[in-house]
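User: Just a sanity check before I run the rest of the batch. Below are the structure tokens for the first item. I only need the designed sequence back.
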């Protein structure tokens, strides 16, 4: 049985390497996906905030997932741009959870989520300035040292440019990787959304990120408003341009594990798995690697 209060349990099924295309585990389809098992996807990703200090269905589902797949964790609330230091009690609980799950790395966002004791429950972009970079580097190292795990930050979608920024996002990300000796979860959809909204070349952006620093890739769908502005929703099918940018990214960076996110406007699971299969074909073609699980179609 999986425990959340400081146990050292790690499922023996959670030791294989994470490779290929996984899916974010969501309660909307968890039972059905568990019924299909590893033949559907080779690994899954979970948000610790959904499971820590929680009883009932959530830990029961996670226990079964750990007996079925390698599980990777991705946080939602530890923005590395927060001015306030992280709460030590939270980091201690997270440390125990990550150890129990046996995740090969943990990630959270290149953002801030609150200040002066107020938390907004959103991923707010930071200005791309030297002072913000210094603070984020400090917070990242603080978290990594406490959690004692390989730690990665994820790039965001942002919808306005901070007027005080004195560098662009790719420069900021590359500098953070170097200064904090960090790893990165590269969200290809976010790069594409930002490129369309702010007018830059997404491939040139990708080229500026050191491949050896990237441990994982995210992809998702986004909403296109009537005026053409794009919103990162995780609630639509992926568009062809994001599939294409992923193929370019994998061709440049090699076989980084890819995660399909879906957080709303739920289709049938078979539709999501069709997206996973298309992604897996791209992964195999771009990296020239044998698929870790059978994928149907051409």
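Assistant: Here's the designed sequence for the first item:
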């Amino acid at each position: 049985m999986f425990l959340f209060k400081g146990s050292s349990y790690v499922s023996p099924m959670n030791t294989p390497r994470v490779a290929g295309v996984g899916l974010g585990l969501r309660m909307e389809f968890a039972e059905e996906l568990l019924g299909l098992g590893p033949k559907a996807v080779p690994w899954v990703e979970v948000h610790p905030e959904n499971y820590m200090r929680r009883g009932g269905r959530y830990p029961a589902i996670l226990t079964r997932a750990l007996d079925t797949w390698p599980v990777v964790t991705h946080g939602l609330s530890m923005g590395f741009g927060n001015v306030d230091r992280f709460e030590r009690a939270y980091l201690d609980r997270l440390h125990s959870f990550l150890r129990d799950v046996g995740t090969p790395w943990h990630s959270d966002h290149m953002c801030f989520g609150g200040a002066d004791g107020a938390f907004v429950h959103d991923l707010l972009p930071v200005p791309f300035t030297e002072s913000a970079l210094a603070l984020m580097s400090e917070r990242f190292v603080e978290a990594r040292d406490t959690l004692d795990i390989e730690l990665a930050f994820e790039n965001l979608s942002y919808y306005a440019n901070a007027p005080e920024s004195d560098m662009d996002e790719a420069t900021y990300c590359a500098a953070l990787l170097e200064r904090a000796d960090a790893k990165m979860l590269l969200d290809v959809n976010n790069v594409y959304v930002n490129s369309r909204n702010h007018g830059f070349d997404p491939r040139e952006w990708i080229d500026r990120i050191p491949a050896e620093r990237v441990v994982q890739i995210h992809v998702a769908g986004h909403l296109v408003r009537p005026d053409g502005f794009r919103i990162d929703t995780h609630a639509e099918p992926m568009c062809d341009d994001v599939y294409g940018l992923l193929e370019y990214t994998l061709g440049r960076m090699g076989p980084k594990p890819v995660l399909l996110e879906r957080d709303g406007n739920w289709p049938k699971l078979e539709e999501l798995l069709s997206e996973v299969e298309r992604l897996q074909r791209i992964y195999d073609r771009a990296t020239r690697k044998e698929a870790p699980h059978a994928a149907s179609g051409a």
